[in-house]
């Protein structure tokens, strides 16, 4: 495989999107609910700072895996939900979860 083939490799692009300590757990939380508020996600994540969580969410949003929804109340609320592209990851992550459980 040459560099150009590697650059356009679907596996490389997929793993690049999913890489990040918290992204799989973020996606797991979003598969459980239709949409989740930022603060709920943060509370469900063990020991992640709000800054890091916001960065990981922004990356997933830039990759069009999740959608950010702002509700202009007082105080303002921010929700996240999976896009159609993100929902397609459900069976893949489920298989990875099962595979990982079989390793232990």
UniProtKB/TrEMBL annotation:
Domain HTH hxlR-type: 9-104
Keyword Transcription assigned: yes
Pfam families, per the entry: HxlR
InterPro entries: HTH_HxlR, WH-like_DNA-bd_sf, WH_DNA-bd_sf
Keywords: DNA-binding, Transcription, Transcription regulation
Protein name from the UniProt record: Transcriptional regulator
Lineage: Bacteria, Pseudomonadati, Bacteroidota, Flavobacteriia, Flavobacteriales
């Amino acid at each position: 495989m040459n560099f150009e083939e590697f650059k356009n490799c679907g596996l490389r692009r997929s793993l690049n999107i999913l890489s990040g300590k918290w992204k799989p757990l973020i996606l797991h939380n979003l598969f459980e609910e239709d949409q989740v508020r930022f603060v709920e996600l943060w509370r469900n994540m063990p020991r992640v700072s709000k800054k890091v969580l916001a960065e990981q969410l922004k990356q997933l949003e830039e990759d069009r895996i999740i959608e950010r929804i702002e509700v202009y109340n007082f105080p303002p609320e921010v929700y996240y939900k999976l896009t159609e592209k993100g929902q397609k990851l459900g069976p893949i992550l489920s298989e990875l979860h099962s595979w990982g459980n079989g390793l232990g």
